[in-house]
Automatic annotation (TrEMBL):
GO terms for cellular component: cytoplasm. One of its GO terms (biological process) is thiamine biosynthetic process. It comes from Streptomyces naganishii JCM 4654. SUPFAM superfamilies: FAD-linked reductases, C-terminal domain, FAD/NAD(P)-binding domain. The keyword Oxidoreductase applies. This is glycine oxidase. The lineage of its organism: Bacteria, Bacillati, Actinomycetota, Actinomycetes, Kitasatosporales. It catalyses: glycine + O2 + H2O = glyoxylate + H2O2 + NH4(+). The gene is thiO. Pathway: Cofactor biosynthesis; thiamine diphosphate biosynthesis.
Length: 388
């Protein structure tokens, strides 16, 4: 091995979740190293950055809703702290979201979502098609109604990732720009990693926060490996020329022929259109079909979109978990912790994940809000499925 370094905490993965964990842990006085060839890269470069706890409410995910709302509530202070510390703007916009229906079936679906949101104590307002178009004049004339959710905001994940890198640097986090190749296990305990360049990085605790790659780190015993899988999302970026501004003044989304499409307008004129959801393993090809479907669906929603310059097409991998919720806290190996499996909510869950991981790293205990997301829930389920 070429060299070695030691810290209290080694974070494997420098995406938004790894960075926020490293930053918050360093703020609590721990020495932290992050291993990642490109900190702030990965899914943060693709994600649209919707903070959509209410409009992305799904049946069966009420426990996750609690975590999503807790994180959304932390966003204003989190964003202000990061900007004050680093001087980075984050593109944090509290502009709200409008979920619209294009036909009678969509309308029925949105009505159900509205009822479910209200049962869950969430704020959303039903609007007629005309009221939707009054709010967003670029919407198609055929829009049949919609839900106005002023509490669902947005942030620019690229700016957020850059700010987190800067905040980590200021807090003394050491970056090792290399892949972690293998977990080191000594006497039944995780004690660090060997990096691809041969460096041995040892640490008192190791946090696996490598997004969709988290299940692939060599050396992790089977029972401690997180059950995460890659779920591909293709995303487009367009730019709104000044003469068309404001093209949209809030996030607009819909379900078109069963696929989710959303348009996220940034103040700097970028318009993000996402996203496909494809179970295709590690494939990150941008396909003609993916781009076509996104543009077709976005065009049904906002016909004027075809006038805009298309500036970027990209695909990323969400870290999907069996119940669509993250895995936070100790794994089934002493010294190893997980912060992964955030699936569709990685950007939204950054503030609460950073706080929860810093707490468990310093005290050994997860805060109450994060306890339902312990990785042990999958192990308990697997054990109960074994024949007696
Ligand atoms: N949260 C949006 C997405 O995963 O596409």
């Amino acid at each position: 091995m070429s060299s070695s370094r030691t810290s209290d905490v080694l974070v494997v993965g420098g995406g938004i979740i790894g960075l926020v964990t490293a930053w918050r842990a360093a703020q609590r006085g721990l020495s932290v190293t992050v291993a990642d060839p490109e900190p702030g890269g990965g899914a943060a470069q693709v994600a649209a950055g919707m903070l959509a706890a209410v409009t992305e409410l799904h049946y069966g995910e009420q426990t996750l809703l609690g975590l999503n709302l807790a994180s959304a509530a932390r966003y204003p202070d989190f964003a202000a702290e990061l900007t004050e510390l680093t001087g980075h703007g984050l593109g944090y916009r509290r502009c709200g979201t409008l979920a619209v229906a294009l036909d009678t079936d969509d309308r029925a679906h949105l009505r159900e979502l509205h009822a479910f949101q209200r049962e869950s104590g969430l704020e959303s307002e039903w609007l007629s098609g005309r009221e939707c178009r009054r709010l967003e004049p670029m919407l198609a004339p055929g829009v049949r109604g919609g839900l106005r959710v002023d509490g669902d905001h947005q942030i620019d994940p690229r700016r957020l990732a850059a700010a987190l890198v800067a905040a980590c640097e200021r807090a003394g986090v050491v970056f090792h720009r290399e892949w972690a190749e293998r977990l080191t296990v000594t006497a039944g305990r995780a004690t660090g990693c060997v990096l691809r360049d041969g460096t041995a990085s040892s640490a008192g605790q190791v946090v696996l926060a490598a997004g969709s790659l988290s299940g692939r780190l060599a050396g992790v015993p089977d029972e401690a490996l997180p059950p995460v899988r890659p779920v591909k999302g293709q995303v487009l970026r367009l730019s709104v020329p000044r003469r068309y501004a404001p093209f949209l003044s809030r996030t607009v989304r819909a379900v078109v022929r069963g696929s989710h499409v959303y348009l996220v307008p940034r103040l700097d004129g970028e318009l993000v259109v996402g996203a496909t959801s494809e179970e295709l393993g590690w494939d990150t090809t941008v396909t003609a079909g993916g781009v076509y479907e996104l543009l077709r669906d976005a065009h049904e929603l906002v016909p004027g979109i075809t006038e805009l310059p298309l500036t970027e097409t990209r695909a990323g991998l969400r870290p999907g978990s069996p119940d669509n919720a993250p895995l936070l806290g100790p794994a089934a190996l002493e010294g190893l912790l997980l912060a992964t499996g955030h699936f569709r909510n990685g950007v939204l869950l950054a503030p609460v994940t950073g706080d929860a991981m810093a707490q468990v790293l310093t005290t050994g205990e997860l805060p109450d809000v994060a306890r339902p997301f312990t990785p042990r829930r999958f192990r308990a389920a697997a054990l109960s499925e074994q024949p007696a």
